[in-house]
Give the backbone structure.
Amino acid sequence: MSKTFVAATLGMMALGASASVQAQDIQVFPGGSSPSVIADPKNFSGHVVVDLLTPGSVSAPASSGLVSFAPRARTAWHTHPAGQMLIVTAGKGWVQQEGQPRQEITSGDVVWIPAGVRHWHGATTTTAMGHIAVTYLRDGKTADWMELVTDQEYEPR
Ligand code: MN
């Protein structure tokens, strides 16, 4: 279902950009076709695995990946130059916009993060969380990474 959703999203984006896009063949990206990667510890705390689902391209200016966070694992603080959609596929997690209370997210939830909003996302202290991230590109870039989220910031009060 998540894959269908992503495919539909990419399809809609292609339609939206139809003026500048030639007719193309449907592309299937087989599950498991790109190797799982351990997330860069500069930008993530704890144990995080990233499976690239679709790469960014000119006709669909977004990349998508399945990101799996172990309990306590989370992104660093960051912004997205063109926004990001998170589709939570498993478990329970948190997303927090700077200056606002964290919000709990769970399987089936969809989160939209507008361009330029400083935030982090990750698992809760006790439950792993998986999400598909559809991240839009601006000038070939998906994210501006900042400081790691400290234990003090992460620990719920
Ligand atoms: Mn993000």
In short: The chain has two helices and twelve strands.
